[in-house]
Amino acid sequence: MENEKHFKLLKGDSIEIDGVKLYRIEATRDIPRIHIGKGEKGGYVEKEDNLSGDAWIGGNAKVYGNAQVYNRAVVFGNAEIFENAKVFGEARVYDDAKVFGNATVRGDCSVSERAKVFEDVEIYENADIYGGAKVFGHAIILGNAQVYDNAEVCGEAQVFGNAEVFDYAEVYGEVQIGGNAMISENAHVCGNTRINDFVYLLNRAYVGSNDDFCHFVGFGSENRNTTFFKTKNGDIFVVCGCFRGTLKEFIREVKETHEDNKFAKEYLLMVELVKVKFNL
């Protein structure tokens, strides 16, 4: 069925974008998997080559230029796919999202809300890009990774595994972020940094290499994950369970909470290692 043309252009129902005429499509057969019936109207394309396979463009979505939507991909809402972008596999692009440039969106991933994916980006597997997020350059997002809110991922950066980049975080350079890492708030991660496990970078984190952060697993009363990292102004910030604060605040909290017990000793030994690592 994927080789059988499943739509037609409605020459009497067209719009223009930047001087390019787009035509609304109409299904010429049923597409049961997405509940589209024969005769149902869809979104807009510039030409028949914009849509093929068993894919569909619905709502007021627009696909034009040399963009292609194919296989079993679905584009709907007010989404726009243009220039040389490709959306295929089981991918979904919807709401007010835009995919353009030479970007590729494939697999079972989604791009939604106000997100923009452009230039030479690749989004695949089960990745989700949403909110007002921007992914551009030669970035690659895959696995179950998520980029959302107003976060930006660009350059040669890769985000994979179950990692999340959100809030106003910026990830660029040749960074690789995987595992269950979370990059949030106003954090900046760049250079050749490699981040994995349960590393949490937030607040005003400014990490330009692996020398700018460290991570401990399985210490304290709850076997917590504890991350120490540099901020833009050179301070050391700590994330440990619900605790968020500077290194000095962390030391004070440990002493007040644990006094001189085993857990206090564990945490304070971490602090001594951190001082060595960061030349404090």
Structural class: mainly beta
Strand order of the largest sheet: 1-2-3-5-8-11-14-17-20-23-26-29
Radius of gyration: 24 Å
Shape: elongated
Low-confidence stretches: none
User: What is the terminal-to-terminal distance?
Assistant: 66 Å
* Count of extended strands: 33
Q: What amount of the residues lies in strands?
A: 35-45%
Describe the structure in your own words.
By secondary structure, this protein is mainly β. The chain contains two helices and 33 strands. The chain has a twelve-stranded mixed sheet, with no helix packed on it. Strands 4-7-10-13-16-19-22-25-28 form a nine-stranded parallel sheet, with no helix packed on it. A hairpin with a 2-residue loop joins strand 1 (7-17) and strand 2. Helix 1 runs antiparallel to helix 2. The relative contact order is 0.06.
Topology:
Elements: E1 7-17, E2 20-27, E3 41-45, E4 56-57, E5 62-63, E6 68-69, E7 74-75, E8 80-81, E9 86-87, E10 92-93, E11 98-99, E12 104-105, E13 110-111, E14 116-117, E15 122-123, E16 128-129, E17 134-135, E18 140-141, E19 146-147, E20 152-153, E21 158-159, E22 164-165, E23 170-171, E24 176-177, E25 182-183, E26 188-189, E27 194-195, E28 200-201, E29 206-207, E30 213-219, E31 224-230, E32 236-240, E33 243-246, H1 247-258, H2 262-277
Parallel strand pairs: 3-5, 4-7, 5-8, 6-9, 7-10, 8-11, 9-12, 10-13, 11-14, 12-15, 13-16, 14-17, 15-18, 16-19, 17-20, 18-21, 19-22, 20-23, 21-24, 22-25, 23-26, 24-27, 25-28, 26-29
Antiparallel strand pairs: 1-2, 2-3, 30-31, 31-32, 32-33
Helix pairs in contact: 1-2
